[in-house]
UniProtKB/TrEMBL annotation, chain A:
<protein>
    <recommendedName>
        <fullName>non-specific serine/threonine protein kinase</fullName>
        <ecNumber>2.7.11.1</ecNumber>
    </recommendedName>
</protein>
<dbReference type="GO" id="GO:0070525">
    <property type="term" value="P:tRNA threonylcarbamoyladenosine metabolic process"/>
</dbReference>
<keyword id="KW-0067">ATP-binding</keyword>
<keyword id="KW-0418">Kinase</keyword>
<dbReference type="GO" id="GO:0005524">
    <property type="term" value="F:ATP binding"/>
</dbReference>
<dbReference type="GO" id="GO:0004674">
    <property type="term" value="F:protein serine/threonine kinase activity"/>
</dbReference>
<dbReference type="GO" id="GO:0005634">
    <property type="term" value="C:nucleus"/>
</dbReference>
<comment type="similarity">
    <text>Belongs to the protein kinase superfamily. BUD32 family.</text>
</comment>
<feature type="domain" description="Protein kinase">
    <location>
        <begin position="1"/>
        <end position="220"/>
    </location>
</feature>
UniProtKB/TrEMBL annotation, chain B:
<dbReference type="GO" id="GO:0000408">
    <property type="term" value="C:EKC/KEOPS complex"/>
</dbReference>
<dbReference type="Pfam" id="PF00814">
    <property type="entry name" value="TsaD"/>
</dbReference>
<dbReference type="InterPro" id="IPR017861">
    <property type="entry name" value="KAE1/TsaD"/>
</dbReference>
<dbReference type="GO" id="GO:0061711">
    <property type="term" value="F:tRNA N(6)-L-threonylcarbamoyladenine synthase activity"/>
</dbReference>
<dbReference type="GO" id="GO:0002949">
    <property type="term" value="P:tRNA threonylcarbamoyladenosine modification"/>
</dbReference>
<dbReference type="InterPro" id="IPR043129">
    <property type="entry name" value="ATPase_NBD"/>
</dbReference>
<keyword id="KW-0808">Transferase</keyword>
<dbReference type="InterPro" id="IPR000905">
    <property type="entry name" value="Gcp-like_dom"/>
</dbReference>
<keyword id="KW-0819">tRNA processing</keyword>
Length: 220, 261
């Protein structure tokens, strides 16, 4: 490995660019959170590294694009994975396209359709992403291929409840990216439902999840 | 000089504050405290507020050395909160506003929390962790509005603590959370509890049922009530800090404001 170069610092990990056996690679290192009890911090970090590595592998087995895992190093809190060729986040794509062509333009809705089918594939296998924001979805310049990253909060065999929360997180992320994103989300759900027979149950649950967040009594 | 008087009674506390140009002149309060193992019911809480509101009002005026004619506006908590206590206090606010012929301003409970805290701390554009008996939200100001970035998807953190206090039969005086904190200081061992963070949202109900189901077994030997309080705090607080941190990463805000009851 050549000496790693700091690429990005997130809320729970630093990303370094390096090479692994001659291939361009990314090191994702989860740093210690000193505000957490050390036992709790170790346990959470270990769980997340394992969950992430397993989900990445599983995701690729399902035919959904995700970085290849090269190495998992629990004591050093690291995952070494494939360095993806330059692409933008879905968040950036939504911002760019809705500014240029409107929030309900054809390329965006086509992207929404692809995203819906991709999520149906993951969800049909019970794979819950856990942090399905538009920043964790990458897309190439042609908007053809979506790559999913950052599986640290993923769950392996989620029920309707967890799958619905996944969609809810996405819905809110899309909304926070662009306020007039209704058509985008609708297209995601239409494609999601067409792709998978179990989708209806999840979408029904999603309705409950939405209500729960907003209509709760807030006392004290 | 602007002098305002504010009435708040959305839950088990009744409080009246007088502020002159951003300076708090007085802020007397009374808390309705229920026996251990019990929560506060709306109608009983309303009766408590009705019984104390006039005394508290007199106290607020006396401490501030302000007479009604010096007051420019009357404010009150409009909601959200418990209906009966809210109404009881709002009636008094409306009555004095009419008696004194002052304008009346309804204030959203949550905005009140945030703006009060900004005034006191001088924070400019903070990411707000708004936690109390009934609220658990991560809020930041964006696009000319306070926006909710993350929140609990089931019960509030305060509610979760209150329920644990009830399970352990801890006193509600001065508050269940305070007594959990005192117990937690003497906790020795960390019990591994479900740590549920979903993006910027948290969930506490799973953690509570996890404890409920195992409590008798734990207390029979493995863990003390102190350990359980300690573990609940460590786990729940870590969840809140993590989601707040995530929101800060998103907003780029450098300040955190923790706002509670």
């Amino acid at each position: 490995m050549k000496s790693p170069q700091l690429l990005k610092q997130g809320a729970e990990a630093r990303l370094y660019r390096t090479t692994f056996c001659g291939r361009p690679a990314i090191v994702k290192e989860r740093f210690k959170k000193t505000y957490r009890h050390p036992e709790l911090d170790d346990a959470i970090t270990n769980d997340r590294i394992k969950a992430e590595a397993r989900a990445l592998v599983r995701c690729r087995k399902l035919g959904v694009r995700a970085p290849v895992v090269y190495q998992v190093d629990l004591p050093r809190r690291r995952i070494v994975m494939q360095d993806l060729p330059e692409c933008s986040t879905v968040r950036e794509a939504i911002c760019r396209l809705s500014a240029a062509q409107g929030a309900d333009c054809e390329p965006l809705l086509a992207l929404a359709g692809r995203l819906g089918r991709l999520l149906a594939t993951l969800h049909a296998a019970g794979l819950v992403h856990g942090d399905l924001t538009t920043s964790n979805l990458l897309v190439d310049d042609q908007l053809e291929h979506i790559t999913v990253i950052d599986f640290g909060l993923s769950v392996a065999d989620g029920g309707a409840e967890e799958l619905a929360v996944d969609l809810y997180v996405l819905e809110r992320a899309v909304l926070s990216t662009h306020p007039q994103s209704g058509p985008f989300t609708e297209h995601v759900y239409t494609a999601y439902e067409q792709q998978w027979s179990g989708a209806r149950a999840v979408l029904d649950k999603l309705h409950q999840v939405r209500m729960r967040g907003r209509k709760r009594l807030m006392l004290g | 000089m602007v002098v305002t008087i504010g009435f708040e009674g959305s839950a088990n506390k009744i409080g009246i504050g007088i502020i002159r140009d951003g300076e708090v002149l007085s802020n007397p309060r009374r808390t309705y405290i229920t026996p251990p193992g019990e929560g506060f019911q709306p109608s009983a809480t309303a009766r408590h507020h009705q019984a104390h509101v006039l005394d508290v009002l007199q106290e607020a005026l006396d401490i501030a050395k302000i007479t009604p004619d010096q007051i420019d506006a009357v404010c009150y908590t409009k909601g959200p909160g418990m209906g009966a206590p809210l109404v009881s206090v709002a009636v008094v606010a409306r009555t004095v506003a009419q008696l004194w012929q002052k304008p009346i301003i309804g204030v959203n409970h949550c905005i009140g929390h945030i703006e009060m805290a900004r005034l006191i701390t001088g924070a400019d554009d903070p990411t707000v962790l708004y936690v109390s008996g009934g609220n658990t939200q991560v809020i930041a100001y964006s696009e000319r509005r306070y926006q909710i970035f993350g929140e609990t998807i089931d019960m509030a953190i305060g509610n979760c603590f209150d329920r644990l206090a009830r399970l352990l039969k801890l006193s509600n005086d001065p508050s269940p959370g305070y007594n959990i904190e005192q117990m937690a200081k003497r906790g020795q061992r960390l019990v591994r509890l479900p740590y549920v963070v979903k993006g910027m949202d948290v969930s506490f109900s799973g953690m509570l049922s996890f404890i409920e189901e195992r409590l008798d077994k734990w207390l029979a030997g493995e863990y003390t009530p102190q350990d359980i309080c300690f573990s609940l705090q460590e786990t729940a607080f870590a969840m809140l800090v993590e989601t707040t941190e995530r929101a800060m990463a998103l907003t780029g805000s450098q300040e955190v404001l923790i706002s509670d009851r």
